[in-house]
From TrEMBL, chain A:
Protein name (database record): Sulfur carrier protein ThiS
UniProt xrefs under InterPro entries: Beta-grasp_dom_sf, Mopterin_synth/thiamin_S_b, Thi_S, ThiS/MoaD-like
Highest taxon of source: Bacteria
PANTHER family on file: SULFUR CARRIER PROTEIN THIS
Pfam families: ThiS
From TrEMBL, chain B:
Superkingdom, taxonomy of origin: Bacteria
InterPro entries referenced in this protein's UniProt entry, alphabetically: Aldolase_TIM, Thiazole_synthase_ThiG, ThiG
Name by which UniProt lists this protein: Thiazole synthase
Organism: Halomonas korlensis
Pfam families membership: ThiG
Gene Ontology molecular functions: thiazole synthase activity
Primary gene name: thiG
SUPFAM superfamilies: ThiG-like (SSF110399)
Keyword Cytoplasm: yes
Subcellular location: Cytoplasm
HAMAP family associated with the record: ThiG
Pathway given in the UniProt record: Cofactor biosynthesis; thiamine diphosphate biosynthesis
Active site, UniProt feature: K106 (schiff-base intermediate with dxp)
Length: 66, 265
């Protein structure tokens, strides 16, 4: 299946969870936040949240700013 | 602060802070310089931005939150770069998730790229939504006292008018408006944006601001760490001068030494 990840199309195994996506990006355990279709997915729910075709996923982190 | 004088702490949304200088984390050479400058500034509250993670990056790449650990500082996520209330609200929710439920945010909704002037219509809408969702909102706004009053009425926990345009270093262009905002406000007022050098930070505090927020003035100084220390002193000096109360201005001179006892009398 395909999802839109940080604005770019990405192929993903069907039924992948948010936790599996984060793991595949090498971001497990990092200070990030995840939003799917404009709704926050709390860390505690990454393992239980399955992604579906066409989901719009945002993965963000803190950067320098004023 | 002097040994003989203990100021009351800065109080924002029920939290107390010793430092009245808030600093940003943008525009530094690297995270080492960021951490050194923040240490020299003595700031307790440190603001940062939220952006898409660069995917495919080296997983060992340093993270801002390692340089500025949330255990040591009160991290203040901002909504810089947001031009609509909707984007600002989404950004705040992402930040709250990023910081494990921490709900203090700096709301800024911008109007255009050239001025980075706040869009107060979108700012008011975002503030209302965020406050209803349980956020404590410190709000960047114009130096319009009526807008400031409206933001406070909505429940913002700090009003942060610009001194001049973000990153301009033009100081406080309308001190009379800043005074008007301070005089009517019952929540802390901070000048946020425009400070260029130490005297301008002192002026903000002498006007009666509760604190000052800055980034470029430190990060873009030739020696950022030195400037961070200068700003710490300026904010403390300005605060003490405000509390002490300046002498009245006079039209004519008045000697400091007595007339009586002069040798030519």
């Amino acid at each position: 299946m395909q999802i839109l990840l940080n604005g770019e199309t990405r192929a993903l195994e069907s039924d992948a969870t948010v936790a599996e996506l984060v793991e595949s990006l090498g971001l497990a355990g990092r200070r990030i936040a995840v939003e799917v279709n404009e709704e926050i997915v709390p860390k505690s729910e990454h393992g239980g949240t399955r992604l579906t075709e066409g989901d719009r996923v945002e993965v963000v982190h803190a950067i320098g700013g004023g | 602060m002097s040994d003989f004088f203990q100021d009351s702490p800065l109080r924002i949304a029920g939290r107390e802070f010793a430092s009245r200088l808030l600093v940003g984390t943008g525009k530094y050479r690297d995270f080492d310089e960021t951490a050194e400058a923040i240490a020299a500034s003595g700031a307790d509250i440190v603001t940062f931005a939220v952006r898409r993670t660069n995917l495919g990056q080296d997983a060992g790449e340093p993270n801002l939150l390692d340089a500025v650990p949330p255990e040591r500082f009160t991290l203040l996520p901002n909504t810089a770069g947001c031009y609509t209330a909707k984007d600002a609200v989404r950004t705040c929710k992402l930040a709250r998730e990023l910081l494990d439920g921490h709900n203090l945010v700096k709301l800024e909704v911008l109007g255009d790229d050239a001025t980075l002037y706040p869009n107060v219509v979108e700012t008011l809408a975002a503030a209302e939504t965020l406050i209803a969702d349980g956020f404590d909102v410190m709000v960047y706004t114009s130096d319009d006292p009526i807008v400031a009053r409206e933001l406070e009425r909505l429940g913002c926990c700090a009003i942060m008018p610009l001194g001049s345009l973000i990153g301009s270093g033009h100081g406080i262009q309308n001190p009379y408006n800043i005074r008007l905002i301070i005089e009517q406000a019952e929540v802390p007022v901070l000048v946020d944006a425009g400070i260029g050098t130490a005297s301008e930070a002192a002026l903000a505090m002498e006007l009666g601001c509760d604190a000052v927020l800055m980034n470029s003035a430190i990060a873009h100084a030739r020696q950022p760490v030195l400037m961070a220390g200068a700003m710490k002193k300026a904010v403390e000096a300005g605060r003490e001068a405000f509390l002490a109360g300046r002498m009245p201005r006079r039209q004519s001179a008045e000697p400091s030494s007595p007339f009586a006892g002069r040798i030519n009398a």
